[in-house]
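User: tokens in, sequence out, please.
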């Protein structure tokens, strides 16, 4: 039950929180092997956003694009062919409209579409397409002359990925509590960070990660425990990990970063059309590394 809740939170919130942070572009590579298995997970992620100023009152239109290439080396013995289950891609387009409210609050509404699949068939099918929508309110005191700068984000998010007919809320709170020290409480990431020598920062963190994609040619197989006939329509992975990270500020806006940790929850599953689990691929915790380059405002 806890894993199901974590998966739902991950699918519904990840893109929303990503859209609120100050990153305008990022190139990132992720790798972690699967314990007690020859399986491994590799992901290349690239995204960019471009704020378009609409007026002098703080209104912006922000189109964004993202590409993810997931290489899941699937070496476990199965009763079905896994050759086409090792490469998944997703393409996302989003559009955000944001403007200032009273008392230094900012409102934003975002809509988007994601195509996520192993693309083993011909073209793109309806099952490959996911739709998202969110609204959120931001109060940012990080640019002002206050003793302890902070930022609060409140919002709601809906995604057809989650298979739920209602939106889910989220919250994200950032605060600088001592010179060079700050923390974030929220989902998908909470951390505590120490910045030193102006261009360097260390952090400890707990975060969610994962992916979801359609399988175009569904896999039919017999459960070896129950002898039931099952159908795998999509694949999902939910990871909760804790670790340490390092950031190097190459300039005021360009940051080189690396994170390393160990998964606390490692849940990779095939699911049917009702989003029910039909096969656990791997749930053994393992080492995890991620690094990249990001451009932020």
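Assistant: Sequence out:
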């Amino acid at each position: 039950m806890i894993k199901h809740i974590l998966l739902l939170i991950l699918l519904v919130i990840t893109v929303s929180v990503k859209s609120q942070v100050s990153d305008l572009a990022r190139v990132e590579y992720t790798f972690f092997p699967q314990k007690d298995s020859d399986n491994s997970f590799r992901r290349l992620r690239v995204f960019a956003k471009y704020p378009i100023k609409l007026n002098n009152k703080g209104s912006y239109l922000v189109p964004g694009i993202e590409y993810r290439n997931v290489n899941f080396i699937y070496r476990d013995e199965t009763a079905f062919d896994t050759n086409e289950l090792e490469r998944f891609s997703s393409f996302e387009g989003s559009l955000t409209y944001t403007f200032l409210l009273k008392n230094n609050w900012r409102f934003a509404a975002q809509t988007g579409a994601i195509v996520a699949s192993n693309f083993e068939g011909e073209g793109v099918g309806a099952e490959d397409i996911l739709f998202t929508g969110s609204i959120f309110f931001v109060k940012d005191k990080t640019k002002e002359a206050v003793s302890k700068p902070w930022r609060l984000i409140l919002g709601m998010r809906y995604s057809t990925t989650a298979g739920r007919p209602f939106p889910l809320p989220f919250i994200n709170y950032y605060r600088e509590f001592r010179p060079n020290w700050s923390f974030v409480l929220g989902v998908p990431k909470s951390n505590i960070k120490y910045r030193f020598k102006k261009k360097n920062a260390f952090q400890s963190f707990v975060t969610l990660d994962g992916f979801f994609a359609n399988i175009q040619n569904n896999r039919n197989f017999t459960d070896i425990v129950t002898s039931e006939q099952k159908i795998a329509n999509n694949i999902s992975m939910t990871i909760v990990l804790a670790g340490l990270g390092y950031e190097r500020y190459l300039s005021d806006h360009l940051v080189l970063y690396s994170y390393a940790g160990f998964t606390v929850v490692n849940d990779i599953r095939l699911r049917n059309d009702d989003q029910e689990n039909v096969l656990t691929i791997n749930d053994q915790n393992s080492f995890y590394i991620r690094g990249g380059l990001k451009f932020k405002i």
